[in-house]
Structure formats: C-alpha cells, structure tokens
Amino acid sequence: MSNKVENFGYEYKHIMNTSAEKKDKAYEFCEGYKNFITKNKTERECVKSIIEIAKKNGYKEFENKIEPNGKYFINNRNKAVVLVTMGKEMFDNGINFVVSHIDSPRLDLKANPIYETDDIAYFKTHYYGGIKKYQWPTIPLSMHGKIFLENGKSLDLNIGEDDKDTKFLITDLLPHLGQKQSERKLSEGITGEELNIVIGSLPFIDKDEKDIKDAVKRYVLSILNKEYGITEKDFVRAEIEFVPAFKASDIGFDRSMIAAYGQDDRVCAYPALMAEIENIDNQKTSFTVFTDKEEIGSEGNTGMVSNFLFDIVEDFAELLNVKTRDVYRKSMCFSSDVNSAYDPTFADVFEKRNSSFINKGVVVTKFTGHRGKSQSNDASAETMARVLNILDNDNVTWQTGELGKVDIGGGGTIAMYMSQRNIDTIDIGVAVLSMHSPYELTSKLDVYETYLAYKAFLKNNF
Ligand code: MN
Ligand code: MN
After folding, report:
1. Whose C-alpha in 42, 210, 228, 438 is 20 to 30 A from the C-alpha of 136?
2. Which CATH number is associated with domain 106-244?
3. Which residues surround ligand 1, an ion (CB under 5 A)?
4. The whole model's pTM is what?
C-alpha cells in the first residue's frame, strides 16, 4: 500500500513534454506554411492560392449540383472563399464549420493618394485594422492590389516582394531632432496622416517645357503609365494595400519559432486549409471558410456580417431538401482565430493563470469580448466538453487563454456571427506574440498542433 496522495490538479505543459515525437513533422509542416504566408499577403492573394490548391485536390466550383463526397469551392468576389467536402450524411447531422480570416492589418491607399512636396513624391495611406502606427515607418513595404484602368481592363499589382523589385518606405524623424516627438504619447508617436509612403524623388525633365509643376509626381505617374498603363484617376477604382516586404523566417537558435507578416489569421487559415483538403471519406460535411474584413469588424459583403456563407448553406440545403435551421442547430463551428500569447516582457497586462503561452498547444478560448464579456460568443459547458473530447481523443495538446486581464483586455472574432445562427461555436487557434505588428511571432509546434486540432474536428463524427 502506498501512502501517495493522487494529484487532481491540472497543468498545461510544453508540447515537448507531451509529444516530443511530433517535432520533426511540425517543422516540416511549417515549411509549407512559411511558403504560403510569404507568397500570400492579402486576402485576394490568399483566395487565389487557396482555389489553386483546392483545384489540385479535386475541388470543383459549385454549380448547383451536389454529389456524396463531392468537393466544392465557392469564391466570394475574390476576397473570401468557402471549401466544402460533402460527407456521407450530407446535411443530415449538420455541418462542421472551420472559419478563419485572411485579411490582416495593413496600410490601404486613399482614393487620391499621390502628392508631391519639396521634390519628394508620396502616397497617402489609410490604415486598415488595429495597428500600432509607430511600427510602420522605416521598414520595407510592398504594394499589392487591384486597379481598374479607363479601358475596363484590370491589373493585379505585386511590387516589392521579389528581391529584385523596388520597395517603398515611410520615414521617421532622426532622434537628434525627435525630442518633441518623443514627448508624444506612444499612440501618437506617428499619426495616421504621417504614414506617408515615399514613392519617388526624380523630376520629370522636358527640354521644351519650363517650370514643370509637381515634376516629381509627374515623373512617378509617367513611370506608372509606361509600365502599367495607370493614370492618376485609376486609383479611385482600386484597392491597393501596402504590407511589410518581409519573407517569413525561422526565429531562434533552435528554429522553434516563425516570424512573418499577417499570421493573424493566416496561421489558422493555413492549418484549416490543410485539414480541409485532407478531409476525405467522412460521415459529416465540412465547410471551411476563409473570410475577409474580420480586422474591421467583419463588415461588408465579404465579411461574416454578410449573408454570403449562409446563402451558400441555403443553396445546398434546397438541393438536399432540408431546412437550413435544422442544419444549423446540429452544426458546430471552430472559429479559428489567434489568441494573444503571454509575453514575459509585458507581464503586467496578462493574468498568468488564464493566458495562453507559445509551445503549449492550440488555444481553446471559451469567450473573447470586452470587460463583462460583451460582444463575445461565450461557449457553453456542453460545447467545451465536446471540443475537449475531440482534442483529447486525438492526443492534441491544448490550452486555454483569455485576451489579457479582465479590465484591460478585449477583442472579438467571427465567433459571435456564427453563434447568432444557432450554431455551437468555439474560438480555437494559435497563440501569437507581437500580434498585429508587421512581423508577428508564433511557435512551429503550436501551428502543427492547431492543424491536428482541425483535422480531429473534421474527421470527428460526434
Ligand atoms: Mn484574427
Ligand atoms: Mn486581428
């Protein structure tokens, strides 16, 4: 007989202490992720790549016909996309939804962006999503987006990602003259109207024309016209996004982490994509959704506030002769979004017992929201029990996490828009350090564990 008292406590462990054998596979998986995130820096680029990958894996554009085990994609305006795998049960027992977002904080161009002052040409920007503005000057920027020309043709722009490409930059004041600037609050260290991108410095020269007004702007416009056929007016019918021109990179001597732009939320989108395309021969139907506009409140007809996803479900339900409301009440949704990882350098904003940590697995978030949980989907105990069952059955390492201290933290995801439709929903994704910065940090083990979590969910026939 032992006198040892059993320990009924529970502690989240480093993945290397729960499943060290996954390390090699995790590192390999993340090579694919690094390529994806380096190549796809805007929602449009993500949609294009996701559809290409889907097609290679047997997905066809949905055309009002459904077959058992069929795989379909539905493209919403080139900015959001839905991948569907029909299970053997079709819609009989609801849908497994995995919803991530593929928009990230960035600098958009204003409608009249080009100006010149003191022989330097600039673009005026309007930031998109929550950024710390002071982080954006003095880093290389690239230009992405779509622009329609007068003749009705459109161009997809991508300038600054290739090593040989030119790049763009926002300036900051030298410290020697920055004393007054340093007295500003950090949030005003660089203001929105100071986020002006340098785009040229040579004047347009014409020996027959004297005193050319705005000669530098004119020279930039002449290059844009010669190389792309663009005129100044075309910027009104454009969506141009400036993003950091960084490639994803390993971080640390042990190469255990990944730094990249736009990991919120492509660090969940990529594992969701991989889990979805590998979802074959299942009982239950999956809808893996890559949505837009999450960073500005899911607004617009490519965001989750719109009916785009729910109309697609209705299209399917009509063909299958079932009611959407019956489908939703049996469905479950993984709202796949990131959580704020505990940062020891800024420990005072976190409540350590209820924070997520890098390398401790996929983060299950019962509720997000602000203060008294407002604007959150507060998942029920029943939902939590189902989710933990799914994860534990497949030996997925998981942890829980809130977004900072109760009175400090806050944030929202698409979870509330799914649960509004009467779908059991849980937030589940990767813990991120330096979230919303130009170069966010994640752990390779966590990225892989998140992929395993989504796989476990999609194959689960609860
Ligand atoms: Mn997010
Ligand atoms: Mn975000």
Report:
1. 228
2. 2.30.250.10
3. 264-265, 337
4. 0.96
